[in-house]
């Protein structure tokens, strides 16, 4: 009998930001994903990690982790992420989710203003994501605060300002400051959802739209590498 496909919990922090283009790549590989929406009235967290093969922590719009405007569920998510790391379950953090991963692994975060930047990321290691991380790729960052990586982290790419863009913790945990599967409509929804928005939204959206095809193309390699590093297509034991 064939082994059943794997599944992951996805922690969603806003109505506007979801997996985006990543959904198609997971579905195409038979990897199920279950959204948890603690920011909604009827949402919540899983009662345990016994029924999942991994965890994805999405971005938080204007929510951060360094004290200015902390994600309301920050402390619980840190506990959840530390539990995943101790169990050797794969974790993927995006935006504030990457900050949570960094803190849970022994790093920290620093207070910085909410930004929306579309720039380029540059690979720092030819073997990053098993060699599938593109040498350079578009990076769309919508995030408050900046992460400080623990010494155990391996930087996979940096942005135009030499900040970590992608990193790896241990064997199977990955962080991305920008959303690899972002769509311009997601940014537009974040603007509508919250009263606080970054500067020059119009300019950032225009740039993002011109980069969408390149983002889509880069995601093919990124997702191949993610799935290999996390083992989400390995056979169930």
Explain this structure to me?
Helix content is 30%, strand content 24%. It has a single domain (7-230), classed as Rossmann fold (3-Layer(aba) Sandwich), CATH 3.40.50. The mean pLDDT is 95. The chain has helices spanning 22-28, 74-87, 96-104, 184-193, 201-230, and strands spanning 7-11, 32-36, 55-57, 91-94, 108-110, 115-123, 136-143, 146-148, 154-159, 164-169, 173-176. The radius of gyration is 16 Å and the shape is globular.
What is the general shape? globular
Which blocks of ≥5 consecutive residues have pLDDT under 50? none
Biggest sheet, in brief? Answer: 9 strands, mixed
Order of helices and strands: EHEEHEHEEEEEEEHH
- Rg, rounded, reads 16 Å
| Average pLDDT | 95
User: What is the beta-strand fraction?
Assistant: 15-25%
Looking at the structure, the CATH topology is Rossmann fold
Look at the structure and name the CATH superfamily: Class I glutamine amidotransferase (GATase) domain
Distance between the amino and carboxyl termini: 13 Å
CATH architecture: 3-Layer(aba) Sandwich
Structurally, the number of domains stands at: 1
What CATH first level would be assigned?
Alpha Beta
Structural class: alpha/beta
Give the helix level as a range of percent.
25-40%
Widest sheet, order of strands: 2-1-3-4-11-10-9-6-7
| Strands, count | 11
**Discrete helix count:** 5
């Amino acid at each position: 009998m064939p082994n059943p496909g794997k599944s992951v919990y996805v922690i969603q922090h806003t109505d506007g930001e979801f997996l985006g283009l990543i959904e198609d790549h997971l579905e195409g590989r038979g990897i199920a994903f279950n959204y948890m929406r603690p920011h909604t009235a009827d949402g919540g967290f899983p009662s345990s990690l016994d029924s999942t093969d991994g965890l994805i922590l999405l971005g938080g719009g204007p929510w951060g982790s360094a004290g200015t405007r902390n994600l309301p569920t920050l402390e619980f998510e840190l506990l959840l992420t530390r539990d995943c790391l101790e169990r050797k379950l794969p974790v993927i953090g995006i935006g504030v989710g990457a900050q949570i991963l960094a803190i849970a692994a022994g790093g920290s975060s620093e207070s910085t203003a909410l930004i929306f930047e579309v720039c380029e990321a540059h690979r720092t290691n030819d073997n990053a994501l098993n060699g599938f991380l593109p040498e350079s790729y578009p990076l769309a960052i919508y995030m408050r605060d900046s992460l400080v990586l623990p010494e155990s982290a391996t930087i996979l790419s940096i942005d135009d300002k030499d900040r970590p863009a992608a990193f790896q913790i241990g064997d199977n945990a990955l962080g991305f400051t920008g959303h690899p599967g972002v769509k311009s409509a997601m940014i537009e929804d974040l603007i509508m959802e919250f009263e606080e928005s970054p500067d020059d939204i119009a300019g950032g959206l225009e740039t993002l739209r011109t980069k969408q095809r390149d983002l889509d193309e880069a995601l093919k390699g990124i997702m191949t590498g993610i799935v290999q590093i996390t083992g989400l297509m390995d056979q169930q034991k």
